[in-house]
Design a protein that fits this description.
Blueprint (H helix, E strand, L loop, with lengths): L2 H5 L1 H12 L21 H26 L3 H15 L8 H32 L5 H19 L2 H10 L13 H40 L7 H15 L2 H11 L3
Helix pairs in contact: 2-3, 4-5, 4-8, 5-6, 6-8, 7-8, 8-9
Length: 252
Amino acid sequence: MASSRWITVFAMLAMLTIAAAQPIDAQGLPKISLELGDAQNGGDAAVSLQIIFLLTILSLAPSILIMMTSFTRIVVVLSFLRQAIGTNGQMPPNQLIIGLALFLSFFVMAPVWERVNDDAIQPLIEDEIPYKEALDRGMEPIREFMMKQTRQKDMALFMRLARMPQPANRTEIPNSVLIPSFIISELKTSFQIGFILFIPFLIIDLVISSILLSMGMMMLPPIMVSLPFKILLFVLVDGWNLVVQSLVKSFN
């Protein structure tokens, strides 16, 4: 399937890394040269197109990582958590939120990448399977992960929008339908978790506001008083442990 070629970026990136990791001569570093010229045959042109294609894939790797893994749900929930605490986007900083979401995504997706490596990359390196079969095998664990996290309602929506017939099984669902269905399913799940995170902090805000109003301290912003109590509550219940644990278990 044509769309599966760019979707299996991680397998191709691994292949590119292996191809670049050739033995180095003991006399010095390998020589790298670039030149432009007329292709002598069809094979030369095909190799040039493959190199351009792989360079294009490298530029798309961050987007594919975000859209086809657990990163979307994790980073949205962590952003909701920061907003619920009320630190106005200053603490934790964006770099820390994105970094934590990235490494949590690596942790969640580790079994999937192991299957991709065992089923596709290693057999391809050992010349046991052809290139096209390796792409199909590498995509299968990723498709299974997305299928497991995607709601049938969201998938049916894109099937109707694409005017496609009802598939007989999951293997007939194209990636062009599966990927956007997975994304909106992840967004809905992350918003549901974010709503639950807001409730205890909202209660604290309401209590503090009522107390300040009853004391006649209407000029004092309630957020200045409630913020320390929300941070204290989050620390006492070991909030980071609970949030990370809930996020990781939500993918099981």
